[in-house]
Amino acid sequence: MISQVPGAEVVHACRLLFPAAAVIDTCFLETVAKKDLKTAFRKKALKTHPDRAKALGRSQEELKRLFEETTSAYHTLSLFFSGRSTRTATVKNEKPASPRPAPRRPARKRTTDHFYTGRLPTRELRLGEYLYYSGLISWKTLINAIVWQKNQRPRFGEIARQWNFLSDAEVYRVLSGKAWNEPFGEYARRRGLLSKYQQMAVSGRQKQLQPMIGEHFINEGLFTPAQVDMMVMRAKQHNRGVGHR
């Protein structure tokens, strides 16, 4: 159950991905399943993906901005629902305990941002997720970092098109046909548009050009390089621990 009133960021994300919803409140959020979110994101992404600029008759700059907003909204809601699942699991597994006074925190201005205060999820976490669930960065900081990293990475279809592996029409065919969570390269290969070698070459190039998310935290002055290295080690230790359960 969602016990808190949805913040402005969550409401804005819902209005972007679920424009038909009359009211965005806790009741609405309780009825949204992960598959609904995935379907809504896929539909919106197809209408705003920069690779479809020619087909849609719109500028790449405009579509890039809209696609970034769509991606940010999806990550915001994904994290919100992930937190919902974590809270539910914690309530089910924990034994009743005597009430204890809440720790005092410095007064903060009212904001839609927040810091996680629960236990670490018992699953593998990426660095950004580990920092968030450890209470070291806020929700908004995590979302900004994820969007930043995704925007810095060249798109698979863009690289494939530059290397003349795919035409504009084939890129559109892949974007229109693949499931929202299916990698572009896997779908293109399955449909016979790319060979295994071409898929691996483009994927390798994409990974080479993608910056590490820790770079964002360093650039923003949130952590030093040494602190990021230490957090990477701790995240790996956490993942090894949950992997043996």
> What does the average pLDDT come to?
80
How much helix, percentage-wise, in residues?
55-70%
| Number of helical regions | 13
**Quick one: overall form?**
globular
Report Rg.
20 Å
Order of helices and strands: HHHHHHHHHHHHH
Helix/strand class: mainly alpha
* Tally of strands: 0
Cα-to-Cα separation, first versus last residue: 27 Å
User: Low-confidence segments, ≥5 residues, pLDDT <50?
Assistant: 1-5, 105-110
Give an account of the 3D structure.
Residues 88-111 are annotated as: Disordered. Keywords: Stress response. InterPro entries: DnaJ_domain, J_dom_sf, T2SS_E_N_sf. This is Heat shock protein DnaJ domain protein. This protein is an all-alpha fold and 245 residues long. The protein has a domain at 1-91. The protein is built from 13 helices and no strands. It has helices spanning 8-17, 26-31, 34-48, 53-56, 60-93, 127-133, 139-152, 156-162, 168-177, 184-190, 196-209, 213-219, 225-243. It is globular, with a radius of gyration of 20 Å. The model is unreliable at 1-5 and 105-110 (pLDDT under 50).
In brief:
This is Heat shock protein DnaJ domain protein. The protein is mostly helical and 245 residues long. 63% of the residues lie in helices and 0% in strands.
